[in-house]
Design brief:
The complex is a heterodimer of chains A (412) and B (315). Chain A has 412 residues and is of the alpha/beta class. Helices cover 39% and strands 15% of the residues of chain A. Chain B folds into 3 domains: 6-122, Alpha-Beta Complex (Sufe protein. Chain: A); 135-205, Arc Repressor Mutant, subunit A (Orthogonal Bundle), CATH 1.10.10; 221-307, Fe-S cluster assembly (FSCA) (GMP Synthetase, Chain A, domain 3, 2-Layer Sandwich). The chains are: A alpha/beta (412), B alpha+beta (315).
Chain lengths: 412, 315
């Protein structure tokens, strides 16, 4: 087993669903836009024109990654969250009239807070009815319930492409078809999918799609909303005529250029993501499951992001696991309540009905093209001891028999 | 990442008194299901002296839950049952050099486990009366349930009253809308139950109007009386500073904190915050309060600089 982190050891970063490292090529592409090419793209002079050209190139790079028909279907935003909010708020306005009121949203119980918190607020303050479609134990969507929820009052169906915690992929192409059959606008939060899964929007029924730059080795503070040509969009931020009047505010030129470059690189690495990264993830998962007793893989192994593995270590708690992993220079994340400061464990794991002794010990490993086999092997190497050490402390675990103990404390 | 004190980290990475206790005299099992933590405390008690001779813990929980459990065992070993029962959750937090406000419930779990173990030893039934709601005011660690109970018990109808009774929203103020929501909800329920008149109930739109900034110079100019400084010897100055700090300490102690004078260098006063003040998100507010107090007392402006707790005395 490796020794404790001594500063010389290369850290192992397996939290790429939280954020990724900016690719050095992306950074290089961005830098001139802080210095020489600082112009405002809206300006008439040469300073502005150069920047305008760079923004156009970035839009085309992203267009290529998403496979969309026109580059003007892309609206740059300040984040994935802003893109999600814009899509849903716009739909509530554009889809409803006095003759045909549409004040319902169909979404899932496992969306990112960028969608769920907005829906909750709309429910509370605007009387919007929200259908949160449930999932099964593997995190798969209840298709029948989805179909039933779509109706003449539905303003928008907003369903994530891939889940950030478990990596489970929803069949959004099919879900968009079903939405259109019911005459309903379809949006997908594809923040985790873009750059990890091949996407071809020009052959898809998807109306709107949100993405975020920093999840694909681009910079933070930049996102984009794809709005299919012909789909009406009411801007959330009004002001100047930037983004063809659909998102006001001076363009964040360095970040847009960075996102463009990141998209180009993601396309080059796509095959690698599907093969090498997937193989590393599988090796990691198999290695841990083989060496650590009583652990469960969360999510749908049949349909999952290639980079994500969510493993529940029963009878121990996630924050404690992460603190010990951190001692070995390994970074991951957890669905436990204690890591977020909230009192409840992850809403995603709760929606999947994962028992709480497992939900609190769920640990997410999310890889990227920057990880190596040595990284994975080091994690496989240290996890058994970390889990064993915490189980030694756990009242739910019997060391001698290596099994669960009946433990029913008085609960507050 | 949480800001854990060195002692919390030490007690998490190297916990003391781990495991089950063979032939324990009392066992207390408690937990908070929502937070996903649970603790079993086992104690051995000398029947003649009532002294706790040994204690062990088993904990399912996060870093601070494990550290709090271990700290509890260290605190109670060698104490009589009566002495041990006087230990509060704040004592556990203090022992660890403070806990982040979101993590104070970990020390509460230790406090409860001890009561459960003692009840078990005495053959009594132990009923848990601890309630936990969502944390609402992070500065002071006040949860929603506590605000609601206080509003009901005292018939409160304004935010100022809540701050006065519970301290919630009394500092950074970012939780004020959350507190207002609880107040509005609770008042509405009280009106429905007929225990509060409808026109007395809190309505944020009526109660909260924009306020003008207080632009009068007044307090902003403590330099107005520099004469005092001139005629004062260093010794006189230090005596005055000591006196001012002594007057402040009871207020800090009320909140489980404390402050001591470390050194005075010209017009810079070095102090050390201890107890609950350590790691408290409010420490900078406390420091500026101390600074204001000293400036008032001495009649000229001073700079108060906190020396990290646990650091050697300022040389």
């Amino acid at each position: 087993m490796s020794t404790l982190i001594d500063g010389a050891m290369r850290p192992v970063y397996l939290d790429n669903n939280a954020t990724t490292r900016v690719d050095p090529e992306v950074l290089e592409a961005m830098l001139p836009f802080f210095t020489e090419q600082f112009g405002n793209a809206s300006s008439m002079h040469a300073f502005g024109a150069q920047v305008g050209g760079a923004l156009q190139q970035a839009r085309r790079q992203l267009q290529a990654l998403l496979g969309c028909e026109f580059d003007h279907e892309i609206v740059f935003t300040g984040s994935g969250t802003e893109a999600d909010n814009t899509a849903i708020l716009s739909a509530l306005e554009t889809q409803s009239s006095a003759r045909q009121p549409r004040d319902e949203i169909v979404t899932t119980a496992v969306e990112h807070p960028a969608v769920l918190a907005l829906c909750e607020w709309l429910e509370k303050t605007r009387g919007v009815k929200v259908h949160r479609i449930g999932v099964d134990a593997k995190g798969r969507l209840d298709l029948e319930a989805y179909r039933r929820a779509l109706g003449p009052r539905t303003a928008i169906a907003s369903i994530m492409w891939a889940n950030n915690e478990t990596g489970t992929i929803f069949p959004v192409e099919q879900l968009a078809e079903l939405a259109h059959e019911a005459g309903v606008l379809f949006h997908t939060d594809a923040v985790q999918a873009v750059g990890k899964l091949p996407i071809d929007l020009k052959t898809s029924e998807i109306d709107m799609l949100s993405l975020s730059g920093h999840k694909l080795h681009g910079p933070k503070g930049i996102g984009a909303l794809y709005v299919r040509r012909g789909v009406r969009l009411r801007p959330m931020i009004r002001g100047g005529h930037q983004e063809r009047g659909r998102r006001a505010g001076t363009e964040n030129a360095p970040a847009i250029v960075g996102l463009g470059k990141a998209a180009e690189l993601a396309q080059q690495w796509m095959a690698h993501e599907q093969t090498e990264v997937r193989a590393l993830r599988d090796r990691l998962e198999a290695g841990i499951v083989e060496r650590v007793p009583r652990c469960i893989v969360n999510g749908d192994p049949e349909s999952r992001l290639p980079n994500t593995s969510n493993i529940a270590f029963e009878f121990i708690e996630g924050e404690a696991i992460l603190l010990l992993m951190n001692q070995y220079g390994i970074a991951a994340s957890s669905g436990s309540a204690c890591t977020s400061g909230s009192l409840e464990p992850s809403h995603v794991l709760r929606a999947m009905n994962i028992p709480y002794t497992a939900a609190h010990g769920s640990t997410r490993f999310s890889l990227s093209r920057e990880n190596t086999q040595a990284d994975v092997d080091r994690v496989i190497d240290v996890m058994p001891a970390i889990v064993a050490r915490l189980r030694e402390l756990s009242p739910f675990w019997n060391e001698q028999t290596a099994s669960e103990v009946q433990f029913n404390p008085t609960y507050a | 990442m949480w800001e854990y004190s060195e002692k919390v980290k030490d007690y998490f990475f190297n916990p003391k008194n781990v495991g089950a206790l063979e032939g324990a005299d009392g066992v207390g099992d408690v937990g908070a299901i929502a937070c996903g933590d649970a603790l079993r405390l086992s104690i051995k008690v000398d029947p003649d002296t009532q002294i706790i001779t040994d204690a062990r813990f088993q904990t399912f929980g996060c870093g601070s839950a494990i550290a709090s459990s271990s700290a509890l065992t260290e605190l109670i070993i060698g104490k009589t049952l009566d002495e041990a029962l006087k230990i509060t959750n704040q004592d556990i937090a203090d022992f660890l050099g403070g806990l982040p406000p979101e993590k104070m419930h970990c020390s509460v779990m230790g406090y409860e486990a001890l009561r459960a173990a003692v009840a078990n030893y005495k053959g009594e039934a132990w009923v848990d009366d601890h309630e936990e709601g969502a944390l609402i005011c992070k500065c002071f660690g006040i949860d929603e349930g506590y605000v609601e109970r206080t509003v009901r018990a005292n018939g409160l109808t304004t935010i100022e009253q809540i701050t006065h009774y519970t301290k919630a929203a009394g500092s950074c103020g970012t939780c004020i809308e959350g507190v207002e929501e609880v107040l509005q909800k609770t008042n509405a329920a009280m009106v429905a139950e007929g225990v509060l008149a409808a026109d007395e109930a809190f309505d944020p739109v009526i109660a909260i109007r924009p306020v003008r900034r207080n632009k009068s110079p007044g307090k902003a100019a403590p330099a107005a009386a520099p004469a005092a400084a001139a005629g004062m010897t260093t010794l006189q100055k230090i005596r005055l500073i000591e006196q001012a700090i002594a007057e402040l300490r009871p207020f800090l102690q009320q909140d489980g904190g404390d402050c001591e004078l470390v050194d005075v260098d010209g017009n810079t006063v070095y102090v050390k915050l201890t107890g609950a003040c350590v790691n408290c998100q409010m420490a900078s507010v406390t420091i500026s309060g101390v600074q204001e107090r000293l400036a008032d007392k001495l009649g000229f402006p001073l700079r108060v600089v906190p020396v990290p707790a646990g650091a050697p005395a300022y040389a």
